[in-house]
Specification:
With 536 residues, the protein is mostly helical. The chain has 2 domains: 365 residues, no CATH class; 146 residues, Alpha Horseshoe (Serine Threonine Protein Phosphatase 5, Tetratricopeptide repeat), CATH 1.25.40.10. Helices cover 68% and strands 1% of the residues. The protein contains 28 helices and 2 strands. It has a two-stranded antiparallel ribbon. α15 crosses α18. It is globular and about 80 Å long. The two termini are 50 Å apart.
């Protein structure tokens, strides 16, 4: 980036210092949330994998993904092999990539004709937005970082007349996450609005890249697509209302990033009037964008910044079935790429008011630091969610699991008991709406019974623990042997070897290759327990 005077460096230098102040004190916090299943409790992520596995259907066997994201998986595995389960080692590479994305954004904006200082403010605002805490503290959310860096690299290389490099960046973005394929349409929009000369050779190269990706992604590497039973059961009118609520929530998170959370549940409108209010508010917001676009029609580069977030927000909208299937209205990591354009548009709007930009940057940094503190401990993270959704069984179950890992047995038992009560009394608002619509969900759940059993066991309430494990085993899906292991081991540890053998045999009927169940079965046959095991 050709910054022309020391003053133009200041926003990015200030951002670098604030970024370090926000994240470095928390960089060694325990890995939690999705990192537990992807990195901490998944030894396969550190196993060596041949290159061929990333471009064949074998990818879905070792990656755990339902969609083809080979570069995202490859980089996750590369970092895991280098850093192991080190929290700081797992997060640092992505924090550095985040910083690079902010610098690339500033360089791109300079190439579009923005003043260097305004471009630097845009990069600074992007770097410090509080919604990025989730993406940066959860190392397994690296795909959005890769898409952002690839997208900025593509647009910048194209502006500088380097189509081969632009195509390589485009391929990297698309191979990281499917939203990266929007790079070509976004580039075409940029050229159309900024007035750049569109070279057929460059466009042909980008189109060929997109076509090659699509041929693989929707051909031999389509993957085990998620079931659409729930999505098909939800009427389009409800999806539209949820989409409106999601867009309003996204706007609120960007403008007022408070009360951030790891889940934004897709609660349906409580009435037709509320649905109409959501949709009217969303239309008003879109109308405001349209009015601003009309006023900026002669300022193509600024109009591009304003429109940049829209296709990415549309792709993650509840109108898309995959998002509704997760019962999620939106997620903060969905805003990572849209924030590139939004931060740039805000920096342009306030370009003559550096004091206001500095105040926004400091306020956002404070909010980000406050939110990052929630990631310092797993129980604090889930407690923050439970405080916002006190009716949520999922929040209580996550909190219970966190307490188990922290060995806070009474707190864990209380959380799981509350989760089961919310389910038994039909007070969970999400489940109350969606359970009647699909067999994919139910009011009872293996996880809560299993967690309560573990808490009871460690509290010495062995009869209660046995009852919870038996209920968990009844609810366990085929192939899941954890509850049978816990039940069999508990019975063996109590000297009840006949019951232990029965539980082990039941588990082996579901998971014939389970080594621990085989060992418990053999020990029970000899009326002894020859090893110690932990289940949390």
């Amino acid at each position: 980036m050709s910054l022309q005077a020391p003053r133009t460096h200041r926003p990015l230098l200030l951002a670098a210092g604030l970024l370090a102040a926000v994240y470095l004190p928390r960089i060694a916090a325990p890995l939690v949330y999705d990192d537990l299943s992807v990195i901490v409790n998944n030894p396969k992520v550190r196993a060596e994998m041949p290159w061929r596995a990333y471009v064949t259907p074998d990818y879905f066997d070792f990656s755990g993904n339902d969609t083809w994201r080979p570069l995202g998986t490859l980089t996750t595995r590369a970092v895991a092999r280098l850093a192991g389960t080190s929290p700081a080692g797992s997060r640092l590479p992505w924090l550095l990539l985040h910083a690079a994305a902010g610098i690339l954004l500033a360089a791109l904006l300079v190439s579009l004709g923005l003043a260097p200082e305004a471009a630097a403010w845009a990069g600074a605002l992007f770097l410090l937005h509080p919604a990025h805490v989730e993406t940066l503290m959860c190392a397994s959310f690296n795909e959005d970082l890769l898409v952002a860096a690839g997208l900025c690299g593509m647009l910048l290389a194209h502006r500088r007349g380097r189509p081969l490099l632009a195509a390589a960046c485009y391929a990297a973005a698309a191979l990281s996450k499917e939203s990266g394929v929007l790079g070509f349409p976004v580039l075409a929009l940029m050229d159309a609005l900024v007035g750049a000369r569109r070279e057929p050779r460059a466009y042909s190269l980008y189109a060929l890249t997109a076509a090659a990706y699509a041929a693989l992604r929707f051909g031999p590497l389509a993957g085990p697509q998620s079931a659409h039973g729930l999505a098909s059961a939800i009427p389009w009118s409800e999806r539209l209302a949820c989409a409106a609520a999601a867009w309003l929530t996204d706007l609120r998170i960007f403008a007022l990033p408070l009360r951030l959370r790891i889940e934004y549940f897709a609660l349906p409108p409580s009435s037709a009037l509320q649905a109409a209010a959501w949709e009217a508010a969303a239309l008003a917001a879109l109308g405001a964008v349209a009015a601003a676009a009309w006023r900026l029609r002669r300022r193509g580069e600024t109009l591009f910044l304003l429109l940049w977030p829209l296709p990415f927000l549309a792709l993650t909208s509840p109108l898309v079935p995959a998002n509704i299937l997760s019962l999620r209205l939106t997620a903060e990591r969905f805003l990572y790429v849209p924030c590139l354009g939004a931060a740039a548009a805000l920096a342009w709007a306030l370009r003559r008011r550096p004091g206001v930009l500095g105040a926004v940057l400091v306020l956002w940094s404070g909010s980000a630091a406050w939110r990052a503190a929630d990631w310092s401990r797993e129980s604090r993270l889930w407690s923050s969610l439970a405080a916002i959704y006190p009716w949520s069984a999922k929040a209580q179950e996550g909190l219970g699991d966190a307490y188990l890992r922290e060995q806070r047995w009474p707190d864990a038992a209380a959380a799981f008991e509350k989760a089961l009560a919310l389910r038994a009394e039909r007070r969970d608002l999400v489940l109350a709406h969606y359970v009647p619509l699909t067999s994919e969900l139910s009011w009872d759940t293996q996880a809560a019974h299993r967690g309560l059993g573990l808490a009871d066991w460690n509290l010495g309430r062995l009869d209660q623990a046995e009852a919870e494990f038996r209920r968990a085993a009844e609810l366990a899906p085929r192939g899941d042997s954890f509850s049978f292991r816990a039940l069999a081991y508990l019975e063996a540890s109590r000297g009840r070897f006949r019951a232990a053998r029965q539980a082990a045999e039941q588990g082996l009927a579901r998971s014939p290759a389970d080594e621990m169940l085989e060992r418990i079965k053999d020990d029970a046959s000899r009326s002894r327990l020859s090893f110690r095991a932990r289940f949390y």
